[in-house]
Amino acid sequence: MSYGGSWNKRGEWLEMTPGKALLGQPDRDEAAAKWLLETVGMPEKLYRKLHHEQGIQWRGDRLRLVLFPYREYGIEPRWQELQVLYEDDFCLVVNKPAGMAVHPDNESRETTLNHVVAAYYEAEGVHAAVRHIHRLDKDTTGPVLYAKNEYAQLKLDEAMREKKIVRMYAAIVQGRVSQELKRIDLPIGKDRYHASRRRVSLTGQAAITHILSAEAYPKASLLHIRLETGRTHQIRVHLSHMGHPLLGDVLYGGPGTFARQALHGERLLFHHPFTGESIEVPAPWPHDMMELRERIIEGANR
């Protein structure tokens, strides 16, 4: 369910023209509630909140919703260059660089992507809480999706739970990967001997990785991967278990021939939380991964 009509953002309000079918009802408020919940697909939790706070109003033939209220960022803005891949009033997708965590932990005071997004919002005059929908490992590059309001967060969180947000990766791994390896379906759990590691474990959580294509060279392979589930370190654990650790991923047995794990999120696909439009966001490869691939190809041609 989604809204395919025209709408405008006016300050904290979103304005829609739902049409004569709704305006002609004897009880417009009741008709609006049914339309918002059943046709537009507004989360019931948010509808109840807006209704209680008088955040749903009629102005002539227009239905107005407080979908863009002023919110604190929730994290200190720290300016740094940021590559924006997609943005509208509901969503933001940014390209995370290597060596940066998405969000802070309790121990480190390092600048994270969330700090940088807060600074971007501040510079653009956006008054929204910084809400990431998914994460990438600190040394993995690629797109990270943010919700710019509560409506988007509720809808995108639901899409994540239902595995409707598609994340595709490029990985450069050790050895020649067989063309027969298409799907890895092995549960992943914590490694009792190493706090930061995960491992394949029969008692772990279900984890499925799809290998869409493989370019095999004498000593390494370039894989294009789609995640069906999103367990911590999933790609790294699965490929290491199959005997093909990522180059640079010393935590999982990869050769230290690259400064980090050779993993990049190269594409993100999702449905817009309000309009339902299908959105595909490609993320350009970082220079270090492009150079690594060139070295591997050159080495194969010698």
UniProtKB/TrEMBL annotation:
Gene3D superfamilies (alphabetical): Pseudouridine synthase
Record SUPFAM superfamilies: Pseudouridine synthase (SSF55120)
Active-site residues from the entry: 137
Record keyword 4Fe-4S present: no
Domain Pseudouridine synthase RsuA/RluA-like: 92-241
Keywords: Isomerase
Gene Ontology biological-process entries: enzyme-directed rRNA pseudouridine synthesis
Stretches assigned to coiled coil: none
The protein's Enzyme Commission number: 5.4.99.-
Keyword Isomerase annotated: yes
InterPro entries reported in the protein's UniProt record: PsdUridine_synth_cat_dom_sf, PsdUridine_synth_RluC/D, PsdUridine_synth_RsuA/RluA, RluA_PseudoU_synthase
An example molecular function term from Gene Ontology annotations: pseudouridine synthase activity
Catalysis performed (reactions): a uridine in RNA = a pseudouridine in RNA
CDD domains to which the protein is assigned, alphabetical: PseudoU_synth_RluA_like
One Pfam family of this chain: PseudoU_synth_2
PANTHER family xref list: MITOCHONDRIAL RNA PSEUDOURIDINE SYNTHASE (PTHR21600), PSEUDOURIDINE SYNTHASE (PTHR21600:SF71)
Family the entry assigns: Belongs to the pseudouridine synthase RluA family.
Function in brief: Responsible for synthesis of pseudouridine from uracil.
Protein name per the record: Pseudouridine synthase
Organism: Paenibacillus lautus
Taxonomic placement: Bacteria, Bacillati, Bacillota, Bacilli, Bacillales
